[in-house]
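Tutorial sheet, problem 5. The three components below are modelled jointly, 994 residues in total.
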Amino acid sequence: MDLIPQYIFNGLVVGSSYALIAVGLTAIFGLMEIANFAHGQFYMLGAFFAYTLTRLLGLDFWTGLVGSVMGVMIVGVVLERTLFRILRGASLSSSVLATIALSIFLENLALNVWGPRPQKIPTPFETGSIAFAGVFTTPERLLMLAVTVVIVILLHVGLRHTQTGKAIRATFQQREAAALVGIDIDRLYTLTFAIGAGVAGLAGVLLGTIFVVQPAMGGIATLKAFIVVTLGGISSFAGGIAGGLLLGLAESFGAIISPAYKDAVGFILVMLVLLYKPDGLFGKRS
Amino acid sequence: MKSRVSLPSWLALSVTALILLVLPRLIGTDYYLHIAIISLVFVILATSLDILVGYSGLLSLCHTAFFAFGAYAAALLFLHFQMSLWLTMFAGGVFAASIAWLLGLLVLSVRGHRFIITTVIFAEIGRLIAYNWTDLTQGQIGLSGIRPPVFDLPGLPRIDFSSREAYYYLALVVTTTCVTIIWRITHSPIGWRMLALRENEALAEASGVDTRRIATTAFVSSAFFAGLAGAVYAHYTGFVSPDLFYFTYTTTMLIMVFLGGKGTIIGPVMGAVLFTILPEALRVTANYRLMTFSAILLVLVVFAPEGLVGLFARIRRRFAGQGSVQDA
Amino acid sequence: MSKFVLRAQALAVTTTLLLAGGACLADTIKVGAVYPLTGPVAEDGATVLKGAKLAVKLFNDAGEFKGDKIELLVEDGACIPAQSVAAAEKLVSSSKVVALAGAFCSSSTGATMDVALRYKVPMVSGVSTAPNLTERGNPYLFRIQATSQMLADAFAPKMMELAGGKKIAFLVVNDDWGRSIAQYYKTSLERSGAQPVSTQIFDANETDLFSYITNIKRAEPDAIMMAANTQNAVTVTEQLRQMNIKSRLFAEGSFTAKSYYDVVGKKGDGINGLMPYVSTYDSPMSKKFVEMYKAAYGELPNNNAAAGFEELTIITNAIKTSGKIDPQSIRDAIATSTTPGPAGDIKFNEKGQGYGFTVFLTRNENAAPMIEGTAQIAKP
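Model answer (structure tokens):
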């Protein structure tokens, strides 16, 4: 079928957005063992910050992008220093419930601040549609893909070759031991939270130029991100990326078979993975 | 773990029972009676969820799916086979329980976050089915025209439950029965094994508890009551639609359990009543309702994780000046 | 409990929209409305409310009814049936409203109309299109809106002419409305010689429709029939453009709303809308409505605004003609009434289905709807 490249490309673009959201979720989970149900709200806030900076305040796209990513990082840091610090010792169910409450709160806060009306972030590109080799796409979608690649490389290099990255990896594996050898856990948590929130916020800005921005977008993103991390392995960076792309592709091709059950493809994948490889495709036994 | 009931408790219980019996006379309008009936349904939902999250330590985020499955089963049986609530109640419960058993085969092998996430996904699958299998479920518009039952046995007075007041008493009887059974389950040897599972699974296993079997029992029985509640709800409101699968319902049920006090039965009962009334009372703040609601929840989860029951116990301890009473 | 009741009522009164000018002396007539003010269609619900308020203001300013004022009590139904029912219960049994308007989504209206029947209070719905609502034998429900079936029958031949070919694809939102559009347009268009080639149903919350559009592209249709409300209409339009789809586009929904034009601008040009109302309709009633709406809100009314306006106009009109304010008299007055609305006179058949008004086939040009054809809805 001559449209196969189109389906693949569609899947990769959506998948890379899933991956960007899931990376932060994985990082926070791997480090702090908190499943943050409000993680999708960082993505939503990133989009609304960018909308405010560009559409409402008239800044150009790139300034808006940097500003909103920093804004989301600040929100992330503030939350980490307050709520998540309190939750650190809490039971699994308390922390899950608290982050669920936080997500409802943030979504309705956004609803009251920005209203329910779907919005768009003005795109920095002039051209509407690009065609190559029979595949139709837009510059915004290409940017999304490019940014994902850059972020993946940055994270990889950062984790492998910087002192902080090594500390994060060490803490991932053995928290108590990491604290014993003098790693500043608090600083690490704050940093991870800031980066995780920032990357999700970045995804929000980029997708806000492709799709619409609205308060409910965060909840759906959280669900998808959870599917992704379960697919890939709950505390594995590579798993988050691969899981994201896999889900994107699965949904894209699932739409050929049955549009209405497109989302079910991802769900069934997760169920199968849980059945045969409970730690995810890239997870290590904990 | 004594189930000795003291004199003040007896008094409180009798007064509560009396109030519940004369409630329709106390509250004037049908609107408040409507809230009372919905509260009763949520009492079943919250207490049955407590079996899982409170007693067995399994945080399930798909309780509303079992509620919805029960409601859909009841609706379809009524609409296609004219079965009344007397039968659909059990059919709804059994249907939900069977699905829970099948799901349990898959998800009860994982714990912690994986279990939680899988249950979220399961509820979503349920919603997708209800949405898209339009021949059976009518899709988003849902099924309507489900009637309340009529009690009609020879030699006994005929009661038509389509009046609010009659349905209130029906729901009251069903709810009281369910809560009593749930109380008995959780305070039986099975309940103790559930507690063992919650506290330390490895230790429980080592001391001879078949943890997988206990987890399955908890999951299936909790789903049974949720399905039963679904039937009571469907015959009351007269319609079911896919929104019963929405995550917000699960959130609401969890709030009821946690804020009432998980692992206590009485806590979820209080939580259910309070958190059916509260959103209705906060209805007036329209757009700020959910914001207020979640803020209250957040504050309570962080600062009073033992819920209202824990809070009362703390207050009582302070006044009694003793620190030996420990809640489960 | 009574303390709670008192407090809740006190709060309700203070936060209620008191639309009457000097409502202290004259009596107030309470009318209830259940609209989605939160959730995915909150935007459209808010627009319906604007129209409804305008109709109430007209009635109150005229002071024709012994100087009595209407107080519009609004509750959020969020387009969730259970919440809409609770809202209606509250309005009817607690606030004692004499008539109801709402509840936007067909599923919510379908559930709420049972409350109307139970308390024998008339309910007027201006937006819900599910055909079966008026087939349930509920004498208290009045639906103004032409069903998708009626719109499809009215315009099918004209649509086929514009399509310039036989192959038709459907791209509709996954709810009762979207699905019924796929169903009824398919039947009507087939009767006019169409050949349906693809039906894509997407979720209201979905943002990426490329895979659906790719499916449609594969079927190479001559025309696409779409159904989407504001949040999806924008996405649908932009992504069809990005995928370089050249087929003719037909649509029901928010493709002529202000919020839509605000975001997509001229990208929506060329789309044909099948609309119950457009502000460019130049009948005297419509012109008057547009003028008042613009004066009140500083923007042009869309079909949802007109629907809200019609809902409340039908209720106020029935109060005026019957001279009574009990629910039964209002119901009986509505059943036999002819109410002039922005899209023409509205009458109801014995099932409570509205007819007599005009419906529109529009084309977007320079981010505004131009009328390409009209049809009058005959008595069904």
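Marking note: Chain B touches chain A through 38 residues (CB under 8 Å). Full credit if you identified this.
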